[in-house]
Amino acid sequence: MFDMKKVEIEWGGKTLTLETGRVARQADGAVLATYGETVVLCAVTAAKSVKEGQDFFPLTVHYQEKYSAAGRIPGGFFKRERGATEKETLTSRLIDRPVRPLFPEGFYNEINVICQVLSYDGETEPDIVAMVAASAALTISGVPFMGPIGAARVGYKDGEYQLNPSLDETKEGELDLVVAATQNAVMMVESEAKELSEEVMLGAVMFAHKASAQVIDAIIKLAEKAAKDPWEIDLSDNTAEMKAKLKTLIGKDIAAAYKITDKSARSNALNEARAKAKAAFAEESPQTQMVANKTMKKLEAEIVRGAILKDGQRIDGRTTTQIRPIEAIVGFLPRTHGSALFTRGETQSICTTTLGTKDAEQMIDGLDGLHYENFMLHYNFPPYSVGEVGRFGAPGRREVGHGKLAWRALHPVLPSKDEFPYTIRVLSDITESNGSSSMATVCGGSLSMMDAGVPLKRPVSGIAMGLILEGKEFAVLSDILGDEDHLGDMDFKVAGTSEGITSLQMDIKIAGITEEIMRKALAQANEGRAHILGEMAKALGEVRSELSAHAPRIETLQIDKSKIREVIGTGGKVIREIVAETGAKVDIDDEGLIKISSSDIKQIEAAKAWILGIVEEAEVGKIYNGKVVNIVDFGAFVNFMGGKDGLVHVSEMRNERVEKPGDVVSEGQEVKVKVLEIDPRGKVRLSMRVVDQETGEELEDTRPPREKSERGDRGPRGDRGDRGDRRRGGGGGGGRDRDRGPRPERADNEGEAPGGLPDFLTQD
Fold first, then answer.
1. What is the rounded CA–CA span in Å between residue 61 and residue 31?
2. N or C: which end of the chain has fewer CB within 10 A?
3. Three-state secondary structure of 184-248
């Protein structure tokens, strides 16, 4: 019934299966990729014609995770998949970036690449499977795709590279690196690393390149069985005559414009040259005008690239290794927890750090289930940052991608939750942009966290490298401008500390770069990062020792798991009372870790004392602060240590005789008490009279000796279970001797105890 074609290979310890012809048969190309028990369907459709006047390539990649793939129902009010999550957006970009450069220049047919995760085994990350499925679907579709590409994830642990590690293995290791490549060259790199060297990172990229070659071979075998006939398209370049005309007309103007160092002045000069060219073709057809516009862009690229390769002359006059002037300011904003203004040339970012408690963590619902993230980095790129009028609102794919790149660069140097139990949010607002605002975010974000008192392992800096490649000649450019990014062949971003790389990202516009070029780019980036770190240190060399006065304070307290119930109370009664009374926020987890937070240290101390009072055991002979909670005829009950009650008998209130307890204390009064005795059932006998109520110091017992002998030194009380024997005349351990006779001085107020008196205070 189905003309199904299938290819299988053993790859990284699991079977990778690519099949076509059974599912989504009306698409131009559709591949079902299975790796482990993770299954991704990718379908490719392409428009057969180009819209009139279109002069760009409308490729759109959509990656979607179906909750059913993991046997889950979406959380929240709407029980179906909705807008793209951050992970889906990032994976869509991950597929788009290596695929886009492999379509021929001048091909403008619209293409949709839709990848859907249909099954997820909890171990095999679906992003790599989706990239492989997309490459295979494009290869068999017949569209002019100069692939295929392969993709692989690499981990690094104990000095060994790991191919396609599981999610847990990646977390435990030192590297999470994704590479996409053709047979001959690397196309895309995305990574997060724990301060690894350039050699280790380059080795990981080459390891992934070699592994991806196995996937490419499998896709080629599938294409040999199932590929559709290639499209016949005319992409011949007949613009040589037009280019010569434009060069004569505006070539000198363009060359002069690109020698202007100021971006605004340079843009004005280029716009004048472009207007001059546009006027020369004003009488031509719309199609000819569109071709002329594209040709003029090619002419600009040739002039700029030629100047760099010929004499190393860059647009703003710098050498290939020179970094633009840097200015860094910390404490830029008065009320934020931490802030920095980072400016490099005409690129500028205001970064702020906000510290929050556990309830400020970001809840993320995905295929792996519900989890919480305590570090967030949000990047905003308003249109005014490039002097333009444009859309201003929710972040687009580019902003999400740039923010995640900066997140990956800073995440490896963050303290653990145990060391620093805060939720951290870094916000980067780009206020000027002329090249690598994401790396400005890394630098500014690092400084703002240091300003906020976040104990980073080391400061992090980032730099963007560019490439001009013509044949075998190439030049690697440090700290590229926006125009150099636009006219160059590579955008190579490296972030790290003085000890190593924390993030590496590469995007190229040509059919890959070689190991030699990558090695030179990494070495040059190392020098640039070191220079930038030095400039950052002028603003703030180390983390501030104190948090901002406006930041919440958090103290952690570990209690025994058996005491959790006592701290929470029935239905949460106790913990709610602690929060209401002290004003501090209290969080407790299943392991007994308690986090107490407030901007007022007194509130934290009050809540901490209360909790310790609940979980700690009272000590005989120790003095505590307490509060009178109930007054009875024979004394007063005092709450101390937050959650314990004890009795101060009327005889223990003062050294002199007390007629009524109410004459000495009142409900709600703060008192200082000493623990005299704790019976086996946990009942506590307290004394006020032996404690100075002003200073809390213990006082010498000044009662007359006769009172001490008759009332004070009673010896061990023993088990109250023998009271019945004493009443029958038995001599229970610790009981009074009935032959002592009456004690007249206690007859009035210390005779037979009223009902309700604790056992250890009853008298025979």
1. 15
2. N
3. CCEEEEEEEECCECHHHHHHHHHHHHHHHHHHHHHHHHHHHHHCCCCCCCCCCCCCHHHHHHHHH
Take residue 93 and report the two structure tokens written for it. 């970009």
Q: Which CATH architecture has domain 240-311?
A: Orthogonal Bundle (1.10)
Judge whether 386 and 431 are in contact, CB under 8 Å: no
May I ask the CATH class of domain 5-226?
Answer: alpha beta
Alpha helices per DSSP H over 675-727 = 705-707, 723-727
Q: What is the pTM of this model?
A: 0.79
- Residue-wise over 452-467: b if at least 16 C-beta within 10 A, else e? bbbebebbbbbbbbbb
Q: What is the DSSP letter of 569?
A: -
Query: b/e map of 17-36 (b: 16 or more CB within 10 Å)?
Result: ebbbbeebeebbbbbbbbbb
Q: Which amino acid is at 34?
A: T
**Taking the domains of the chain in order of start, what are their residue ranges?**
5-226, 240-311, 326-539, 552-616, 618-764
Phi, psi of 193 (to 5 degrees): -140, 155
DSSP H helices in 64-197: 86-99, 126-141, 167-172
Per-residue pLDDT of 568-601, as tens digits, reads 988 898 899 999 999 999 989 888 989 999 888 8
Between CA 146 and CA 101 the distance in angstroms is: 9
CA dihedral in degrees (514, 515, 516, 522; nearest 10)? Answer: 120
Q: Is there a common fold for 5-226 and 326-539?
A: yes
* Token pair belonging to 382: 């308003």
Tell me which H or E stretch contains 39: strand 38-46
> Residue 86 corresponds to which amino acid?
E
Question: Which pair of structure tokens corresponds to residue 478?
Answer: 């440090």
491 annotated binding-site participant: yes
- Pairing between β-strand 175-181 and β-strand 150-157 as defined by DSSP bridges: antiparallel
Sign of the four-CA dihedral 367, 373, 375, 378 = positive
Cα separation of 389 and 235, whole Å? 34
Give 724's pLDDT tier (boundaries 50, 70, 90).
very low
Give the list of residues 6+ apart from residue 124 with CB closer than 8 angstroms, or none: 14, 35, 36, 37, 38, 164, 166
- Residue 750 scores a pLDDT above 60: no
Q: Is 633 annotated as a binding residue?
A: no
Q: Which two tokens stand for residue 538?
A: 């002028």
Q: 211 by DSSP, 3-state: which?
A: helix
**Residue 283 contacts by C-beta under 8 Å, 6 or more apart in sequence?**
none
SS3 329: strand
Inform me whether the pLDDT recorded for 479 exceeds 80.
yes
Euclidean distance between CA atoms 676 and 648, whole angstroms: 10
Prior bond to 758 cis, omega within 30? no
Residue 737 has pLDDT above 70, yes or no: no
Residues, the chain: 764
Write the class of the CATH domain 618-764: mainly beta
Mean pLDDT of 365-371: 85
Query: How many other CB atoms are there within 10 angstroms of residue 708's CB atom?
Result: 12
Span 326-539: which CATH code? 3.30.230.70
Secondary structure (3-state) at 413: helix
Fold of 552-616: Ribosomal Protein S8; Chain: A, domain 1 (3.30.1370)
At which residue do the structure tokens 């889950």 appear?
A: 72
Q: What is the pLDDT of residue 313?
A: 78
Cβ neighbours for 428, distance < 8 A, ≥ 6 positions apart: 349, 350, 351, 377, 378, 379, 380, 403, 406, 440, 441, 444, 445
